[in-house]
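Morning run. Coffee first, then this:
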Amino acid sequence: MANIVYIATSLDGFIADRNDGLDWLNMVPNPSHDDLGWADFMNGVDALIMGRVTFETVCSFDCEWPYSKPVFVLTSSLRSIPKGYEDKVELVNGSLSEVVAKVNAKGYENLYIDGGKTVQSFLKEDLVDELIITTIPILLGGGSPLFGDLPKEQRYELVKSEMLLNQLVKSHYKRVR
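And here it is:
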C-alpha cells in the first residue's frame, strides 16, 4: 500500500500562480504531446484522493473527465456530487487515516493524492509514501505553495530523476521510515 503524490511545481515551489492559474504548466513546448509518464503512473495506482478545490478545478477544465480510476473527493463542505459527476466520484470525509482506511477497505491500495491543501495535510500527518515532482523552470514569485509547515522533518530518498522535454525535471522520492 502506498499514498503517492504526483504533481508539478515551479522552481520556487508553487503549484498554482497568484491567481490560482495553471497556464504556466504548459510553458514548455511539447509538440509530440508526450504524456511525460502520466499513463504509466496512472496504471500503477488504484484510485485517487483529491481535495474539493482540486475536484472543482478539474471539473472546470474544457475536456473529458481525465480519470479512469475511482476518485474520492475529500470534503467537509460538499453535500452532494455535482450533476454529471455522480458516477465519477465519491465524497469522503473524516480524519485522513480514517479516509485512507475506508478507501483501502474497498480494495484500493495504491492511492494518488492530489490537491495542494490535501497534499499538505497528508504530509503533516506523515501519510505520504512517495513524492513524484516535476519541476518546471519558472519562478512564479508567489501563489499556492506545494509544501507547508510540518510537525517534524521527513526524510525521502531519491529513487529516480529524469529530464523531460529538455527542460523539466521529474524526481521520484520514497519516504524513509
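The radius of gyration is 16 Å. Good start to the day.
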